[in-house]
Amino acid sequence: MFRRLKIIGALGLMLFLALIVCAEQRFPPPDFENGYQLPTTSTPAARHLWLQYGDTAVFLAALGLAVWLIYKKRSRRWLFCLSLFSLAYFGFYRRGCICPIGSPQNVVYALFNPNYAVPVTVLVFCFAPIIVALFAGRAFCAGVCPQGALQDLVLIKPIKVPLWLEHALSIIPYLFLGAGLIYAATGTGFMICRYDPFVPFFRLSGSTFILTAGALFLLIGMFIGRPYCRFLCPYGGILRVASLASKWRVRVTPDVCTQCQLCEQSCPFGAMREPTPPGTNPKWLTAERRRLGWLLVLLPVLVLVGVWAGSKLNSAASKVDPAVALYERYARQQIKPVQYSAMSPEALSLQRAAENPDATLKAARDLQHRFILACELLGGWIGLVIGLKLIALSLRQNRTDFEPDRGACVACARCFTSCPNERVRLGLMPATGEPASL
Amino acid sequence: MSKTPLRSALLLTAWIAAFFCLLVGGVMVYEHLTASSNDPWKSPQLLALKEKLAASPKSEPLQNEIRELDLKYRRQFRHRLALDRTGAWLLLGGAFVLVLAARKAAALNNAPPRPQRRLDDGEHSRKLASRARWSLAGVTVVVAGSLLLIRLANTSAIPGNSAVAHKAPVEDVPTLAEFQTNWPRFRGWDGSGVVAWDFKSTPAVLWHSAIPLPGHSSPIVWGDRAFVSGGTSAQRKAFCYNITNGALLWQRAIENVPGSPAKVPDVPEDTSYAAATMATDGRRVYVFFANADLAALNFDGSVAWTKYLGPLKNPYGYAASLAIWGNTLLIQLDQGENRAENSKLVSLQGASGRVLWERIRPVPASWATPIVGEAAGKMQIITLANPWAIGYTFPNGKELWRAKLLENEVVPSPILGGGFVLVVSPSSKLIALRADGAGKVAQAAAAWSTEENVPDISSPVSKSNLVFTVTSGGMATCFGINDGKKIWETNLDTEVQASPGIIGDNLIVLGQTGTLVTLQAGRDCHETSRIQIPDKFVASPAFADGHIFLRGMTNLYCLGPVANALKKP
Fold it and tell me: Looking at the structure, do residues B326 and B406 belong to the same domain, yes or no?
């Protein structure tokens, strides 16, 4: 045990060192004084179209393979191999881009900005996992998502998160999703991508903040299975909802559930749900119905309170936008000048603002105005998420067997071989002629 | 569990991998730390050489030395980047081996779970749901609290933002009586050029003190200090004098204003870079130059804040003076040669320099100074430019009315008198305007107008039911303020650019060649005194503390009763 802790500690230290040295550096331009004009920074050419289609084909093939491995082959080993391939291909080779996690932002940005057209590849990456989730659950999370694969890889000693806490924290991805989408809609930027903690590892470069966040997620991920997927990933939130309506669902046992709880212990993601007793205790029924009624009334109130609270946040929220941030810096510079290095990004931006302060102010004001509606929508969305989650927690569930929660299950296939009946089916245990039971 | 050879091998592999990762990571960190001291952007060696180069810019050996050192550092930087990349891949490989070995070792050490039986009678599920709801409420409180903190901590510099108003620094403002006692802006606290105290005896120069830089701005006075500005294309300064003895207390160069280009616009000598009169709110003095550099200086001469308001397009150079009311500074930034060239009226907070609001004005360049005062029962800001006289609410700056009355290049500033706004269309008309209209008011809003002896540069001055004007040719005229009828006129035999003022019952007119004429400010034309000062004057006089302050081309003069005359310091 002590040795294991030392190994984990060493790994943690290594990650900490890695994030320091990998922190992105920007090299200052030469200090030319002879009138030499620096060449204009050019954007690298887009990836060739056939390569983009190739990526899409690989993605769809991986998605299909994941579904086959989960439902037909029922193989954790092969699914793990697929996730390693996805980590290598979509992670380190494609450097985390394109990736379905950030793709809803492209779609929303296109909806609010007529000058932007979403590429077909982005649409496929965005909607294919959702469509698959509607039929077969979170197959994307199981074997195709490089972020998920990385977290799966470092999981060494899983610790159960109490289910009540799991429920409470499961709303955070939706809040992140809402925030990411309003920033995309206003044209501020793709925050979900900017704050993806694992992409800097794929690119071997990134800001110290994100590298630190990524290292922390990996450290936590040694003990808590897929912390990012469960408690932050906005795309995981979408797939969670889509999976609730999935046609097929992951079944632990191919036969009768023995209720041995081995599957529950095998799941590191807290997705296994225990059976509920048949019928309803009459002494609780009235209180439960009354609570549900109050929560249904509370739902629109929460939405309205959220809209009101959101309307107060537009100024603060808009500061993330470069146009607003530029004017803020410019205005503060007028009041309390700060000496920036020559040709530093700050100095250059101030120079740009000083050339036309009125236009800078107008751009900032326009953006701030756009944020009024965006923040109201975000506030309403937060109220809706909290209200719906409270209602969901007050609805009675009927389960006769141990089974995975459709939304929470990432279809990793760990639980399959934990089931005695599955082991019998695979020939790992001797058959007794009847389904194994306690 | 007993150690199996496989588990031991896995643990050993994990240890080796961990050691490898630490080694690689350590080397990378060491490289990172040592290389950062050779950053060409911050290297003390390189910075020292650059300073040397600034002292002798033509030194070829020095230039070469800098180039070589710069190149060396850049090569080192590229080398370090390559090392970082290799190291990152090595680190990744090591981490991969470490994780796989540690996972496998941990798996071997794990005891397989044992089947359990749990009978849920529903109580467990109920408690779980209850806890989940409470924890969700807790998460909601945390989220709401975080958003509240963000909201409370938010300050925005964007004008009109309520969060800023909430955070705006609050400071005490001198009373109206203090403003009236002093001479805080061009033509006094209300821009009228009138003070109530009397000046019985013939004025005489008490002291004069050299002004180091030229300028046409008029002096302002607060307490025991007088302030003037001066400037050239090379430097622009504010000067502070002790009004008791004329000692120059401090001078402050306004330079390195953020955003202000090094090359200043060309300004004719007749206007000068320091034509705009300074202003003060008793806490700070404000100075504005033709290159659009605005600065607030504390009374000890230190810079409170600076701001660049340009670029300004003005064919003769910017000359409108700063207006102040309370701690609100107003600048009429009219510019260009047609009516759509970014002219605007700007309001700033004196303490911080923050722009409170800006109003776009459909006018070309003008040189008149705005006034603030009560007209038609409202506090108004009144501005003049070709062709519009415009009234704005104070302090919000909402346009109340505008009247198309003016022609030519508008220099004379407006005044309030007899319930009218008195405006001068240069060399064309003196107009008495009712300021009670709304929107675009017709010319009928003018109660009267006259075309006799209309000045083109100096502003009118009014007392009781009279209004006085002085043309550039020296023709002083008195009109009845209710009907605009001429009461008297007299030729002062001197050219005049400074605006006249009134001290008690005395009309003070300062000629360009240094003739200071005192006339009775009444219905009868009577010259009471005339003295000569050997200097050239275009700036308007300031009246404060029982003295007259004049800004000549080279000196600041203080005039008072002869008995108080002091020697030059």
Answer: yes
The verdict on residue B145 lying in a domain is no
Residue at B242 is within a domain: yes
Q: Does residue B22 sit at the A interface (CB-CB below 8 Å)?
A: yes
- Measured N-to-C along each axis, helices A49-68 and A76-86 cross at an angle, to the nearest 10 degrees, of 160
**Cβ count within 10 A of residue B64:** 10
Q: Give pLDDT, residue A34.
A: 62
> What is each CA distance from B396 to B346, B351, B357, B441, in whole angstroms?
11, 17, 8, 21
| Beta bridge mates, B298 | B284
Distance from CA of A59 to the nearest CA of B (A): 24
d(C-alpha B236, C-alpha B219), whole Å: 16
Nearest CA in chain A to B77: A27
How far is the C-alpha of B8 from the C-alpha of B566, rounded, in Å?
102
Give the closest of B131, B132, B307 to A334, CB-based. Answer: B307
Indicate the number of domains in chain B.
2
- Say yes or no: B197 and B56 in one domain: no
The better pLDDT of the pair B541, A45 is held by B541
* DSSP characters over B338-378: SS-S--EEEEEETTT--EEEEEE-S-----PPPEEEEETTE
> Does A333 lie at the interface with B, CB-CB under 8 angstroms?
yes
CB pairs under 8 A between A and B: 216
Same domain, B212 and B96: no
Q: Is the pLDDT of residue B206 over 80?
A: yes
Whole-angstrom distance, CA of residue B244 vs CA of residue B569? 10
Q: Is residue B166's pLDDT more than 50?
A: no
B118 domain-assigned: no
Pick the residue from chain A with its C-alpha nearest to B69: A30
Task: Say if the Cβ atoms of B259 and A336 lie within 8 Å.
Answer: no
Q: Which residues 398-427 of chain B have a CB within 8 Å of chain A?
A: none
CA–CA dist B320, A30 (Å, integer): 43
At a CB cut-off of 8 Å and minimum separation 6, what does A60 contact? A124, A128
Q: CB–CB of A129/A100 below 8 Å? A: yes
Model confidence, pTM: 0.58
A166 and A270 in contact (C-beta within 8 Å)? yes
Q: What share of residues in chain A are helix, strand, coil (percent, to 5)?
A: 65, 0, 35
Angle (CA) B516-B520-B522 rounded to 5° is 140
CATH number (domain holding residue B549): 2.130.10.10
Strand-strand pairing, B378-384 and B371-375: antiparallel
Would you say residue A116 has pLDDT above 50? Answer: yes
Could you tell me if A20 lies within 8 Å of chain B, comparing CB atoms?
yes
Q: Which residue of A has its CA nearest to B346?
A: A358
Question: Which of B70, B84, B129 lies at the smallest CB-CB distance from A394?
Answer: B129
Domain termination site, one of B105, B131, B147: B105
The pLDDT tens digits for B345-361 are 999 988 888 888 888 88
**Are B235 and B255 within 8 A, CB to CB?**
yes
Q: Is A11 on the interface with B (CB under 8 A)?
A: yes
Instruction: Check CB contact under 8 Å for B88 and A204.
Output: yes
pLDDT one-digit tens code per residue, B266-325: 888 888 899 999 999 999 999 999 999 999 999 999 988 988 888 888 888 899 999 999
Q: Which residues in chain B have Cβ-Cβ distances shorter than 8 Å to A280? A: 122
Phi first, then psi: give them for residue B564, nearest 5 degrees. -90, 5
SS3 A74: coil
ipTM: 0.83
d(CA B53, CA A3): 60
Helices A357-392 & A282-311 angle (0-180, nearest 10): 180
Q: Is residue B142 part of a domain?
A: no
Q: Which domain holds residue B281?
A: 176-564
Task: Tell whether B271 and B184 lie within a shared domain.
Answer: yes
Kindly report the number of other CB atoms within 10 A of residue A326's CB atom.
Answer: 19
